[in-house]
Design a protein that fits this description.
The protein is an alpha+beta fold and 687 residues long.
């Protein structure tokens, strides 16, 4: 053991192994538990505690017969609060008070609390209320998932349609309300994604299943043994499955940060060779590609999430292996204080990591490319006679118009994404194994005979064009529908950080963009669409706050980012799939700088792990590239498009640290590698 610093080994308190599949969990949570944002929230007990007492209270809780409870982060409780309202929490018997969070303010180092009386964040005092949360991923035996939908296993009873509809509405399976009958499209997707064999093995019956899709004489039904749809009268009796939006495609034992998927640390120590081999062999979540993280990736995780939050995820005060060679050994990082070091022959804890860029297509029913939406291929090959009519029936989103793709379109999709990415998304390795137009002559392939291929369908419509989504397309921009809750500035920024409509890269609009939205749709048009018509936050800074615009009359003003100033949030995204504020210049595509400013070493792999607009291959730019961009576009124009006016990191080294460029005027400077020097970065890729 050749460490430059003292090594103190601390055993992890978590029992979930890294190298096993996510556990099936059947949990009966206590009365008053709320479910939201993929978390279970224990009903507060009304006892005021110190921060240490609150942390231990949650850590030692076995409510519902399970462990893994922790304090929520500020962002988690803020998002939970602003997607409900005070009356709902009061009805659930939550005291209107300040609650401990696991978050520490970056600059002051002070612990933060969140007040459910008014949605305000403040510095902690000596004692506050406690609410505990844990990751929520219950899938009892017989449950099946398709995309973000969870299907309740049918019981042995058959029911007529009114009884089936009421049966689903009354369900509270896995502690959730809001179950419903599936659409026939959702049942078809389940069949083609999982296959008849897997569905039968889960104990599902072979008979007809009700859907809530109307069809003469009453409703559509679907049979899982052969994927056959039909229609039936409402008085007929069939089996029933109910469906719920799960919205959590990741196993309970992982988190996603900076485009990487992180497994929980193991509970035992290994030497470096054993740790590297274990990650390489891991199939956690049903996928391979796991590896040891680099030192830069470990540091980015530590400085972004903080020791308090990470300790609740199993990162104790322990040394964790990195992949970097250092001296005669390999690098390690201590997660109690972020201290780096290296180890030659000792044993430390292991955490495995993999890219998250190729995961979403494997868990969601669609992907986007070239302004089109593609469905995942069916799981079972079919003859041409079936394939030529299937896109109008088996598409994952009935709100879009679907068709079979051409050979040229399939070739373009594979050329952009690459064969490995396509396979991870559920497509065949060889695009020739997909049906394409114009297809063979009917005479050469009679029904039930001849070649059989997989089928993926394509829609020429934007993923946002489904009117049920509430999104609006204005020019080259997509606007996410506003919510009913007024938010302070920091909570507004968080709302646009979410992956709305399955896309990342959303941001607050500029004042000029809000003015364009109002000029295009008008206050009355926005009102008819269910949008707010009062004051909206704008991205533009002014004085000691940010600009706001009133939709009723177009009046502009500004407001300080205090807890008491609360306005509507609208989030904007470029319709071509890239984040709003993206720029193309000199053969390069630039993503607008976003995220939390970090030290240069923590940013080294930030861009490499990004999947922006469905594209990979991002990197940190050089100084020459940034200065050329500023010269070509103009600093003022970039700032007006949402870019920071100050310095951003570049990959170009300096005599002491790394170079940085000021966006407002292109001035080049440098900063040392000290953790206190934190700047944003603009990720860039070749067109």
């Amino acid at each position: 053991m050749q460490l430059r610093y003292l090594l103190v080994a601390v055993s992890s308190m978590f029992s979930l192994p890294v190298f096993a599949a996510a556990p099936i969990e059947v949990t009966n949570y206590p009365a008053g538990t709320l479910i939201g944002d993929n978390l279970a929230w224990l009903k507060p007990d009304g006892v005021a505690r110190s921060e240490e007492e609150a942390t231990l209270f949650c850590k030692n809780s076995t409510a519902g017969g399970v462990s893994g409870w922790r304090l929520p982060t500020r962002d988690e409780i803020s998002h939970f609060y602003y997607n409900r309202n005070q009356a709902q929490l009061q009805n659930a018997a939550w005291p209107a008070a300040a609650y401990w969070t696991a978050s520490i303010e970056d600059f002051s180092g002070q612990q933060l609390v969140f007040n459910t009386a008014d949605g305000a964040t403040a510095y902690a005092g000596s004692t506050h209320q406690t609410v505990c949360v844990r990751y929520y991923y219950p899938l009892p035996a017989g449950f099946l998932k398709s995309g973000n939908l969870m299907f309740l296993p049918p019981d042995a009873s058959t029911r007529n349609f009114p009884t089936a509809d009421a049966y689903c509405a009354a369900q509270s399976a896995s502690g959730r309300r809001g179950w419903r009958l599936p659409t026939v499209y959702e049942l078809a997707n389940l069949y083609h994604e999982r296959g008849a064999g897997a569905i039968s093995a889960a104990g599902w019956p072979s008979g007809w299943l009700w859907s809530n899709t109307p069809g003469a004489p009453a409703y559509h039904v679907f049979r899982m043994t052969d994927g056959l749809p039909s229609t039936a009268g409402g008085s007929n009796a069939y089996n029933v499955t109910c469906v719920h939006d799960d919205n959590d495609p990741l196993p309970v034992s992982t988190l996603v940060h900076d485009g990487l998927r992180w497994a929980r640390p193991e509970t035992t120590v290994r030497n470096w060779g054993s740790a590297a081999a274990a990650c390489s062999a891991s199939t956690l979540g049903g996928v391979g590609g796991w590896r040891l993280p680099s030192m830069a990736e470990l540091g980015s995780l530590y400085y972004s999430k903080g020791a308090t939050f990470l300790s609740s995820f199993g990162f104790g005060a322990s040394w964790i292996w990195a992949s970097d060679v250092q001296g005669a050994g390999h690098s390690v990082l201590r997660f109690s204080d972020g201290l780096p070091s290296y180890d030659v022959s000792g044993s430390n804890y292991t955490v495995c990591v993999r890219s998250a860029a190729d995961l979403p297509p494997a868990h969601t029913p669609t992907l986007q490319q070239g302004g089109m939406v593609w469905s995942k291929p069916v799981k079972q090959a079919m003859p041409w006679a079936n394939a030529q009519y299937s896109c109008s029936w088996y598409a994952p989103n009935p709100g879009l118009s679907w068709r079979m793709p051409s050979q040229t379109e399939v070739a373009a999709l594979y050329a952009e994404k690459g064969a490995a990415w396509m396979q991870a998304a559920g497509f065949p390795a060889d695009p020739a194994n997909l049906w394409t137009l114009p297809g063979p002559t009917t005479s050469s392939l009679p029904e039930g005979n001849g070649a059989r291929h997989l089928l993926a369908c394509v829609s020429d419509q934007s993923a946002y064009s489904n009117s049920a989504s509430g999104a609006q397309i204005v020019g080259a921009d997509v606007w996410a529908k506003t919510g009913p809750t007024l938010r302070p500035w920091y909570a507004t920024e968080k709302s646009c950080d979410e992956a709305l409509y399955g896309q990342s890269g959303w941001r607050l609009p500029k004042r000029s963009e809000l003015q364009t939205l109002r000029a295009t749709l008008g206050a009355s048009g926005l009102s008819q669409l269910g949008w707010a018509t009062d004051w909206y936050w704008a991205f533009n800074p002014q004085s000691s706050g940010f600009q706001v615009l009133r939709m009723t009359d177009g009046l502009t003003s500004w407001a300080a980012p205090t807890e008491s100033n609360r306005y509507t949030a609208a989030c904007i995204h470029d319709a071509n799939g890239l984040p709003a504020g993206s720029v193309q210049q000199g053969g390069l595509t630039w993503a607008r700088p976003g995220g939390v400013p970090r030290a240069h070493w923590a940013m080294l792999h930030y861009c490499q792990g990004q999947n922006i607009g469905g594209l990979s291959g991002w990197r940190m730019p050089s100084t020459a590239e940034v200065t050329a961009l500023v010269a070509a576009i103009g600093g003022a124009n970039l700032v007006n498009d949402g870019w920071p006016a100050g310095y951003i990191w570049t990959a170009t080294p300096a005599s002491s640290g790394n170079q940085a460029v000021r966006i407002s005027d292109g001035v080049v400077s440098y900063a040392t590698a000290a953790d206190s020097n934190r700047l944003p970065v603009a990720c860039v890729r070749a067109n």
